[in-house]
Hints:
The complex is a heterodimer.
Chain A (H helix, E strand, L loop, with lengths): L1 H18 L11 H11 L3 H34 L1 H16 L6 H8 L3 H25 L3 H9 L4 H38 L5 H10 L3 H33 L1
Helix pairs in contact in A: 2-10, 3-4, 3-6, 3-8, 3-9, 4-6, 5-6, 6-8, 7-8, 8-9, 8-10, 9-10
Chain B lengths: L1 E2 L12 E11 L4 E12 L4 E5 L6 H8 L7 E6 L2 E2 L7 E4 L11 H5 L1 H6 L3 H14 L15 H14 L4 E5 L7 H18 L2 E5 L3 H7 L2 E5 L6 E6 L14 H22 L7
Amino acid sequence: MVRWAILAALIVILEVTTRTGMISPALMVSPSEILARLVSIVPTERFGQDAARTLTTILIAFTIGLVLGIPLGVFLWRVPAAGRILEPFIVTGYAMPTLLFYPVLLAVMGLNAGPIILIAASMSLIPIALTTMVALKSIKPILHKLANSVSASPRQYYLKVLFPAATPLIFPGVKLGFIYAVIGTVAMEFILAAQGIGFRAGFYYRELNTADMWAYIAVVIVLSVLVNAVLTRLEKRIRRDML
Amino acid sequence: MSQSPTMRSIGHENDVVFDNIGMTFDTGAGVTRAVENVSGAIPEGKFVSVIGPSGCGKSTLLDMVGGLLKPTQGSVSINGEKVTGPRRDTAMVFQEDSTLHWRTVLDNVAFGLEVKGISKAERYDSARRMIELVGLKGFEDHRPGQLSGGMKQRVAIARALAMEPRVLLMDEPFGALDQQTRQFIGRELLRIWEKTRNRVLFITHDIQEAVYLSDEVWVMSARPSIVKEVVTIDLPRPRPEGTHALPRFRELEDHLWALVKVEAEKTLGPGARLA
Lengths: 243, 275
């Protein structure tokens, strides 16, 4: 309730400050105007194509992050020596702004979704791999002993004990991985792309078309809020059922 | 009342037999001898407890029967077969909470059978019977997070019993419980065991508990541990509530305490005296 009140107050403040000219129209237009722009943009075919391109890029990048990140985390846990050797590289990969490689990748792979997927996936993969490793490390030794004592097969050990025990702890990493995929995708599109929501926002930015730029930014904000709400709800459910 | 373990004829072939087993750990800082030259047998239908000072290798002994550890000397055999790894006819209960927190009580109890590949209907059927046996009827759909420590241990016991083990291995299963819960659940265990009569190897620190539950109590020495004495508990079964007050119970308890005290003083170092 309070949160909604804060949100409403913020919108009102923005409306007032932009309309009275306290915020220059070159920087930002009023929320009501953004809404008006959205109403005319959203039904267009071009918007549909942009949204579809951005969403599929995010999903592909996130899926790659998941499919590579979880086994990588399992490997780092299973082979502690590899974990110790590789950890500095992974942490550096985490800290490094990977987007700097974007121009090089563009030159190599061309102006398509490929370079964006590659960067967004590599950003998404790292938190997923690291939390998977940490989650598996933190499983109580007694559960390993139990699985061993009932002669669980390796498959049963992973599916019936390890993954269920680790899921609530892996999930925050998965959530972070998704958010990184969104950031990576939209940011790369913004820098240089041929299509996509981020590209459109960047295009209008460079055209000094403030109103349309903000309309696309609003789309990104709504998308992030929605995705976050879904993931938080999922996380709560997993925690309720699994902790 | 007591006999030296080496004087006993070693094992009938249906027994759990310890044939001169030993265990050394290489800790890096040197070799630690945890268990040495332990011989003995758990006969069919008997409840055997092992007591001894902390760190004397009681749990090591149990893990060797369970196939979790391989003795570095000698061997353990069950029904004439050498134990080389975890077996389908042994089941373990640990001191720590080993319930799977994401599963319901029913699915926890059925876990061992599930791993064995028993069909859903069949394993739920046995699990429900075991849940009733350990007094958790009505809690089938609860998760461990909603249960007390004592109830979680009953889930672990029910899980072990559901596997219908020929040998039940219990590693201080009540060690983490408070005194009242401990006595209560001990009585429950005895009531259940009198129905199932599988062989039990029970590790404990609690002398009274050992006397109350067992047919035999093995007293282990300080490291490197040997079985110092096997004390036969000749109290009649079933053992009703007043059993603790019997003069014979007191005698056995005093005798065991005297044996354990000597070893505990050794563990605690020179000059240590226990009242």
